[in-house]
Amino acid sequence: MWVALSYACWGISIVLALWMLYDWFKVDTTFSEEVLTSSREGELEATSEKHRI
Amino acid sequence: MTIALEPAAPAAQGDRVSLLRVLGPAHVWALGVGIVLVGEFTGWNFSADKGGALAALIVCWVVGLLYTSVAMIDSEVTSTVAAAGGQYAQAKHIVGPLMAFNVALFLVFAYTMLEVSDAILLGDTIVAKAGVEGLTHNSFIAATIVVLAWLNYRGVLMTLNVNFVITAVAYISIVILFFSVSPWTQGAVLKLNELVTPGNALPYGWIGVIAAFQFGIWYYLGIEGTTQAAEEVRSPARSLPYGTMAGMITLLIAAAMTWYVCASMMPWEYLGITYYPLWDAGKLTGSPLLENLLFVATLLAAMASANGCINDAARAWFSLGRDRYLPTWFSAVHPRYRTPYRSILFLLPIALAFAFIADLNQAITFSILSGVLQYTFMSINIIMFRKKWPLGSIRRGYTHPFHPIPAIVLFCLCVVTFFAIFLGFGSQLIAMVAFYFLISLWFHFYRYKFVRRGDQFTMPWPKPQGY
Q1: B17 touches chain A (CB under 8 A)
Q2: Which spans are transmembrane here (chain A) (predicted)?
Q3: Residue B1: its pLDDT value, please?
Q4: Average pLDDT, stretch B143-171?
Q5: Inter-chain contact B329–A49, Cβ cutoff 8 Å?
Q6: Which helix (H) or strand (E) holds B427?
Q7: By CB neighbour count within 10 A (0-12 exposed, 13-18 middle, 19+ buried), where does B402 fall?
Q8: Angle, alpha carbons B113-B116-B119 (nearest 5°)
Q9: Range list of H helices, chain A
């Protein structure tokens, strides 16, 4: 049973790793680099928390 | 346009893609306690090898003081600097870019090495349970790291929901074990008065207590990881202090129960070398149910810790990319899952490589070293924070009491811990400090010219006092 579980672990790892690589490729070819890297630090601070004392 | 507060729907071209604000205090608790709880299942007990069972108890409380200071200081600063990257973002705004770069590397190293240690522990635990000749831990290590990376890739809410459940199960198993051994009675199952006597309580004297600090850190290592969720919690000023302090209280109780049960069931000579103190305690009760419960709990605690570490290391790496301290390529956010997917994928093979080639002791030591470097920074950071922006000058979600006593206590205990690490792993300590020195030179003389200096400071604070 443990040996079978070990093979199953290899199988799951390979399938999920390939899925992530596929999704990565799909996202990078669908969206522009500008959109993907558009996150900015402190957006909440700038919009909802005004730091009024 | 920003879509940060909307549900996780695919972003269209032209939208701004941010991390999702979907977490609450329970997720913060799950992140912090999830990372740490594995330390009760293995790691803390090596302090008994360094100084005996009583030394393990002394460092449980003294290192608890260190981490309570960490939690209080962190809660104040991060409830004000609510950004992914946690202590990195704090260092950037309060100390400066070079310190911030180093702090981010401390974070990435501490969490990646802890993830590696967790995966090795999980693999070794399964192999020990199986007892099958020729069965190696590699497949279990690979599955742990890849499955958890996939979970992190798919979204932070599910990742931390899973962490909450498995952390709670692991924690409850410690409570069940504690009450199953009749903790109010000595002599039936527990034999503390026989196992810890005046003759063997401190076999190496007080220097053993100092040496025990190195592994005493494992009782609480990683609780400061809660701050990495700052950009994904709905109300950082409330959730982060609440989740972090609740996590610290939870861990102090777990640490005390763990020591009491284990020190009352195993002689210090064995307790200090076993990799599975709680699982062994479960076996020693003679109950197959408790033995299996603690076996499963050990696996769950290792999984919860690795899961939280992947989350935190990826956010620290992502933040470095977003500020151009590293190539901006790393700052990409997945338009559907709203996770730092490239950072998660980049760190995945690194963790796998270390897990396959490093041994558990080396990985633990590198993690502890980076953690303690970070805590030393935090003690200096809070002094500078209070000096530059005194109380009343900016809004704080939480103000920690007795300043500057926690900062001084934290600094002094960090110095003691460095000395303890030097006693056990002096060459690794020197190698690591040399690495950070060289990488700082690279950042200062080469990388910093790519940074947009005005853009990196995002907090709408008044000018610091004295500037």
Answers
A1: yes
A2: 7-25
A3: 38
A4: 97
A5: no
A6: helix B405-445
A7: exposed
A8: 155
A9: 2-30, 33-36, 43-47
CA atoms of B340 and B334, how far apart (whole Å) = 6
pLDDT classification of B9: cutoffs 50, 70, 90: low
Contacts of B328 in chain A (CB under 8 A): 37
Mean pLDDT of B117-130: 95
Task: Pull the structure tokens for residue B398.
Answer: 């939480």
- Reading the block at residue B365, the tokens are 């030591």
Distance (Å, rounded) from C-alpha B97 to C-alpha B89?
Answer: 10
- Domain assignments of chain A as residue spans, ordered by start: 2-47
Maximum Cα–Cα distance for chain A, whole Å?
63
Per-residue model confidence (pLDDT) at position B16: 81
Q: Confirm or reject contact between B461 and chain A (CB < 8 A).
A: yes
Domains of chain B are 25-450 (1.20.1740.10)
8 Å CB contact of B459 and A35: no
**Nearest neighbour of A38 by CB, restricted to B17, B231, B319:** B17
Q: Rounded to whole angstroms, how far apart are CA atoms B49 and B134?
A: 30
To 5 degrees, how large is the angle CA A50–CA A53–CA B1?
0
Q: Are A31 and B2 an interchain contact pair (Cβ–Cβ within 8 Å)?
A: no
d(CA B280, CA B283): 5
Q: What ipTM was assigned to the predicted interfaces of this complex?
A: 0.88
Q: Which residues between 10 and 49 in chain A have a beta carbon less than 8 angstroms from any beta carbon of chain B?
A: 10, 12-13, 16-17, 19-21, 23-24, 27, 31-33, 35-47, 49
Is B83 close to A37, i.e. CB distance below 8 A? no
**Cβ atoms of B44 and B218 closer than 8 Å:** yes
Reading the block at residue B306, the tokens are: 């690795």
Distance CA(B232)–CA(B28), nearest Å, equals 10
Interface of B with A in 56-95 (CB under 8 A): 82-85, 89
Conformational region of residue B324, where left means phi above 0, alpha means psi within -120 to 50, and beta covers everything else: left
pLDDT above 80 (res B388)? yes
Closest of B312, B350, B331, B380 to residue B106, by C-alpha = B312
Helix boundaries (H) for B285-340 = 288-322
CB B332 within 8 A of CB B339: no
Q: How far apart are CA B241 and CA B226, in angstroms?
A: 9
**Which DSSP letter does residue B464 get?**
P
Helices (H), B10-155: 25-36, 38-41, 46-51, 53-78, 87-94, 97-130, 138-154
